[in-house]
User: Which sequence fits this backbone?
């Protein structure tokens, strides 16, 4: 008997299947996995009253955060638009007049709030792109994401340097997490491990560098293109909660690197008052409770780490 091909479209973004769109009127639903899908642009760009640029590694937490925020500020319901791509690429978009092109579509959405690693936020304040203060709100740790069952038998960071272990890693050129990853690789195996993962293996094809790791790392692992990839622990927790064939290997504290997430108002923000409300909300007990579902922890108000 002939076995018909089985297409598992649930592996492909948007993993929320449209549920993370805060727009009230959605019109024609036309989302085709792998073909027509824009999972990191959320809401309606028609007359938004709050636009948030978010370093995309907590895209999964944004929908419940926005829902809770709208409950507190019903006048903004359905009027929030947010983008969840890597923080370096968000900066590039700001340098290009807040204009994006994805596929054949080009649109402009000027941000009110920029959120990324605290260090990146402070750099942009110093550059005059954002307005002080930088607001720290949560912290996150790294983990090793692997396919379910861990077929590569990964036990720790040192294994990532072994010949034949295929990696999917964030690109240091624009993905902020790469800075913390490089630090952890040096802690676990010195400069030699960092060079092997981000130098030798990139050149020989054993390391795939991502454009957007929070989408590509789990997807490539599920497609069998890699054995492991370092991500934020929250991202692995989300994939497991979503029922995807993904697992993770914890990184011991002595090798791990913690990041502090921060946000600030954008200079000349179109909706500064709404932006300030969002910044206040990020440090609220309501927001923290949502973040904690995915392994985040509260950041102290005087946090100075990255």
Assistant:
């Amino acid at each position: 008997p002939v076995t018909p091909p089985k297409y598992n479209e649930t592996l492909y973004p948007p993993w929320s299947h449209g549920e993370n769109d805060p727009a009230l009127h959605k019109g024609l639903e036309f989302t085709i996995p792998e073909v027509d899908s824009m999972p990191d642009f959320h809401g309606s760009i028609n007359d938004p009253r709050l636009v948030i640029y978010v370093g995309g590694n907590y895209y999964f937490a944004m929908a419940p955060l926005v829902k809770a925020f709208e409950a507190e500020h019903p006048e903004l319901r359905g009027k929030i638009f947010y983008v969840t791509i890597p923080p370096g690429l968000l900066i590039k978009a700001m340098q290009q007049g807040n204009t994006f092109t994805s596929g054949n579509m080009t649109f402009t959405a000027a941000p009110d709030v920029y959120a990324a690693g605290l260090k990146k936020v402070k750099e942009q304040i110093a550059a005059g792109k954002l307005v002080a203060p930088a607001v720290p709100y949560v912290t996150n740790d790294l983990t090793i994401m692997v396919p379910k069952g861990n077929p590569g038998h990964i036990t720790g960071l040192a294994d990532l340097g072994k010949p034949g272990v295929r990696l999917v890693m964030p690109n240091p050129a624009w993905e902020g997490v790469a800075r913390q990853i490089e630090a952890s690789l040096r802690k676990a195996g010195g400069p030699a491990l960092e060079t092997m993962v981000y130098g030798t293996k990139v050149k020989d094809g054993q390391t795939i560098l991502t454009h957007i790791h929070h989408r590509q790392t789990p997807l490539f692992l599920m497609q069998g293109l890699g054995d492991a990839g370092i991500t934020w622990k929250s991202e692995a927790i989300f994939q497991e909660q979503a029922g995807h064939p993904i697992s993770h290997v914890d990184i011991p504290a002595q090798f791990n690197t913690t990041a502090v997430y921060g946000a600030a108002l954008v200079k000349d923000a179109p909706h500064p008052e709404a932006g300030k409300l969002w910044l206040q909300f990020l440090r609220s007990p309501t927001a923290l409770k949502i973040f904690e579902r995915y392994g985040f922890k509260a950041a102290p108000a005087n946090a100075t780490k990255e």
Remarks:
- The radius of gyration is 19 Å.
